[in-house]
Specification:
This protein is an alpha/beta fold and 293 residues long. It contains 13 helices and nine strands. Helices cover 40% and strands 20% of the residues. Helix 11 packs parallel to helix 12.
Length: 293
């Protein structure tokens, strides 16, 4: 079973580079990677072009012009271009632990999606992480993180637990699994069945809304928050918008009240465009080239 990894980004080329090295360090190798780019400027394109010859996995840069926060649109465009039967989603500021894809792959089951965990790093640690630290696995190592500015916490402790302890904690946790944009995976056919991400949504719960519709469709979430881990690099969040978040909340409330599964504005138009070879609502770039749609 081949995986398609979808990494979202917008104008964070330094962090994206660290994330791409994180996937180079994966012990599971049968995957492609699609960068779902919500309109980054040329700095991101330059970084991707420089890295592609050095990476041991195929990379495609899926891009559209920046017209405000359109993360759901570019995610659907990337899904439409993916070739794997199983998709893993993360963000361009989350470095995966070397076993991340192996854990998701080993735990994939029909009729479910998987919800992984994360550790948010302080800026001091985020800036200190270098390519060699990522490739050697130090960037997700408990002792290294403690020695380089990360405070003790329950989430940091997850980085030192072994597979048995982590599996037990996932089994007994009372926290419900949710679809999180930084670390979740799902069968492609299940995304098609619910029409992917709802493109009416802006920042604030857009990924959890997908998980809620998957649940309504009978696709149950399963917990990997202690076994499948990423470290989240620090950055400012200038895209918060109270009005947009209120609109998102109203949509999610309707999804819950009416047990809705289908996104009214979603993946289907991108699948149709991909089948027709027109590229759809987002430009699709092969290798380091981007083509505006």
């Amino acid at each position: 079973m081949r995986l398609s990894v979808v990494v979202t980004t917008y104008n964070q080329p330094e962090w994206l580079e660290k994330v791409l090295w994180g996937f180079e360090a994966q012990t599971f190798r049968d995957f492609e990677l699609l960068i779902a780019d919500d309109g980054s400027d040329d700095r991101t394109r330059v970084v991707i072009a420089r890295l592609i010859p050095e990476l041991g996995y195929p990379v495609r840069h899926v891009w559209h012009e920046h017209q405000g926060f359109r993360k759901c649109t570019i995610l659907n465009a990337a899904i439409a271009q993916s070739e794997g039967e199983y998709l893993f989603f993360t963000d361009g500021d989350c470095i995966p632990r070397p076993d991340l894809l192996r854990v998701h792959h080993a735990n994939a089951r029909k009729g479910s999606f998987l919800s992984g965990g994360y550790l948010k790093l302080p800026m001091e640690t985020s800036q200190r992480i270098a390519k060699d630290d990522i490739l050697a696995g130090r960037a997700t190592d408990y002792k290294w993180l403690r020695a380089h500015g990360t405070r003790r916490s329950r989430r940091l402790a997850r980085m030192k637990w072994g597979p048995l302890t982590s599996a037990i904690l996932d089994r007994i946790t009372t926290t419900a699994p949710t679809f999180n944009g930084h670390n979740s995976s799902v069968w492609r056919e299940d995304l098609v069945a619910v029409n992917g991400f709802d493109e009416r949504l802006e920042y604030g719960g857009l990924d959890r809304e997908l998980g809620e519709r998957l649940e309504n469709a009978g696709i149950k979430g399963r917990q990997l928050r202690h076994r499948a881990l990423v470290v989240h690099l620090d950055h400012k969040r200038g895209y918060r918008n109270a009005e947009a978040m209120a609109r998102n909340r109203a949509i999610r409330d309707e999804v819950a009240a009416k047990r809705l599964a289908w996104a009214p504005v979603g993946l289907d138009r991108h699948l149709a465009a991909a089948a027709a070879g027109t590229g759809g609502a987002a430009g699709v770039a092969g290798a380091a080239t981007r083509v505006a749609g």
